[in-house]
Amino acid sequence: MGFLKTCVLRRNACTAVCFWRRQVVQKPSVRKISTTSPRSTVMPAWVIDKYGSNEVLRFTQNMMIPMIHYPNEVIIKVHAASINPIDVNMRSGYGATALNMKRDPLHIKIKGEEFPLTLGRDVSGVVMECGLDVRYFKPGDEVSHKPKSLTHAQAASLPYVALTAWSAINKIGGLHDKNCAGKRVLILGASGGVGTFAIQVMKAWDAHVTAVCSQDASELVRKLGADDVIDYKSGNMEEQLKYLKPFDFILDSVGGSTETWALNFLKKWSGATYVTLVTPFLLNMDRLGIADGMLQTGVTVGSKTLKHFWQGVHYRWAFFMASGPYLDDIAELVDAGKIQPVIEKTFPFSKVPEAFLKVERGHARGKTVVSVV
Ligand SMILES: NC(=O)c1ccc[n+]([C@@H]2O[C@H](COP(=O)([O-])OP(=O)(O)OC[C@H]3O[C@@H](n4cnc5c(N)ncnc54)[C@H](OP(=O)(O)O)[C@@H]3O)[C@@H](O)[C@H]2O)c1
């Protein structure tokens, strides 16, 4: 987690995630690519030098600030960041195989050359410098484009969970503001970062929302608009759900054993869809390598999809999907008062390891944010 990030600013890319820079297949340009000359200063940052438990987080005052490498990148001064479960998992090495491939598709670097590694993906800040092809942003802009009604800390809590929920609900689930009215939606893991956002977007689109969470989170999810709330700790889930009408859509951000029973509560033969966010995609690659991991993933998702298809329901996996236009749609809903950020706790930059521990302990009630500036 550093003060500055380099981000790709294609209109269809999430501007908050520095790793996406490596995704762009472009030859480095020989012409001048940025509005200003590269700076040769350093910045404070939290980095890791190896994967492991929270002790591997190290503070440095001397991280080189990023430079613009491609003309469609910008440099953002980070004012606030939020931490997601994947950041904690990546600290421990989760997803390293796939992410190293993304950073270094030709495998030129030797193992371990990703260090010192700066973790984190969600930021809100101010554009400091733009590549020469950047049209949609200019130095001084609050990104990406930040909802006007929010502080940087509030804005930083949204992009990753919002774009993940949006991908699951809209891209994979096919739901949108015009076809959602009255649809019955079940959200598993409703009290976390993704769940608290998903409830609100579903209610903004007039769906009927049943939220599954712990009892102590029921007031929170009702305030966000949930129509029915089920405490998953108060008894057998299947017993509790069988008295409710079947669902058109299930968003699962819990995973594990949930998919052995959740699909039984979808309407049959009506296009109803179960979407899970908890998949073995990155783990398979860590364990089996890129090719075998992808093969295993394809076989697993293919066989599950087919099995449920013959039972009259759709089974799908969803992933975070970078999208500038979606972020703009989300910003509109926020500025219209239909979605509010749910921040459980804010830590100062000096306490980043405590923020990681908070997320690692689980039981989130919304998001954990780090205030940087
Ligand atoms: N596929 C992707 O691209 C993608 C993207 C983002 C997130 N994810 C995954 O999605 C999951 C959720 O992410 P998140 O950011 O929302 O996590 P989070 O903020 O940690 O929230 C998880 C929530 O689930 C609750 N919970 C735990 N067990 C539950 C159960 N059996 N039934 C109902 N609720 C339960 C937790 O509270 P209690 O334990 O107190 O009940 C917590 O509020 C994570 O596993 C994450 O890795 C995947």
> In percent terms, what proportion of residues is strand?
15-25%
Order of helices and strands: EEEEHHEEHHEHEHEHEHEHHEHEHE
**The named CATH superfamily of the largest domain:** Medium-chain alcohol dehydrogenases, catalytic domain
What's the gyration radius in Å? 21 Å
- Report the oligomer: single chain
Folded structure, characterized:
- With 373 residues, the chain is α/β, with parallel strands linked by helices.
- The protein has two domains: 185 residues, Medium-chain alcohol dehydrogenases, catalytic domain (Quinone Oxidoreductase, Chain A, domain 1); 144 residues, NAD(P)-binding Rossmann-like Domain (Rossmann fold, 3-Layer(aba) Sandwich), CATH 3.40.50.
- Helix 1 crosses helix 12 and helix 4 packs across helix 5.
- The longest helix is centred in the C-terminal third of the chain and has 20 residues.
- The chain is globular, with a radius of gyration of 21 Å.
- It binds NADP nicotinamide-adenine-dinucleotide phosphate (NAP).
